[in-house]
Design goal:
The structure is a single chain. Helix content is about 45%, strand content about 15%. The chain has helices at about 15-25, 40-45, 70-80, 105-130, 150-170, 210, 215-230, 240-250, 250-260; strands at about 5-10, 30-35, 55-60, 85-90, 135-140, 175-185, 235. The protein has a single domain (about 5-260), classed as NAD(P)-binding Rossmann-like Domain (Rossmann fold). The protein is built from nine helices and seven strands, in the order E-H-E-H-E-H-E-H-E-H-E-H-H-E-H-H. A seven-stranded parallel beta sheet has the order 3-2-1-4-5-6-7, sandwiched between helices. Helix 1 (about 15-25) packs across helix 7 (about 215-230) and helix 8 packs across helix 9. By secondary structure, the chain is of the alpha/beta class. The chain is globular and about 50 Å long.
Amino acid sequence: MDYNNKVFWVTGASSGIGEALVYELLERGAKLIASSNKPDDLEKVKSRCKGKEHLISTVAFDLADTDSIERIVADRFEEYGQIDVLINLGGVSQRSRIEETPLWLDRKIMEINYFGTIALSKAVLPYMIKQGSGYIMATSSISGRFGFPLRSAYSASKQAIHGFIETLQLENKKNNIRASVIIPGRVKTNISINALTPSGATHGKMDEGQAKGISPQKAARKILRGLERKKREILVGGNELLMLYIRKYFPSIFFNIADKINPH
């Protein structure tokens, strides 16, 4: 794939996989729109792009504020004239049992992970159709393929992503629009540290398994390799991804393993 003069929009770009993708894409010659709800961190990312600052613009907004998204998208198209690839990485995880999780927290997680992602994708889509091509990617999780303790709303939000992206692809093949779901396993990012607890406060610590995950840099390269190969599902992680196959082909074994997991 020729990245030169291609415009990529990456959400969740202030840290983790999103930040790693910013650097990787700039190295390959792409132009970047980097988004996050953390403006100061976004500017720090841009400041690290020495000699390539002219190729990146930043736009800070909250994915849960879906009312502002159409205007933000219109402004970006006016600035660039095109957006070739949208990579939805922004999101939030959860660490709370179902009976401890207030409904407002379920709604908040769904607003960010699902409605924020589809609002941005739906706003970008008409422009991509008009320009005659485009690629929309959205991040799920291995928890988007099966339930997992302490992640009920997170898992539900990520499972919903699959249905939306698969339908988007089926409806828009004739429009030369492609779509992929990114399915990360364990990647060493701050997602577990920033996961929401029943009070709405952050979890504040990294899960042991995640601390042993692959690097964001390796994850970013896997995502771009999947994009280049036009894969509908892009698996990103290590041996934990085997759980996807165990769940599919040996469900009784999967549930025996899951039952033994201590959620605390």
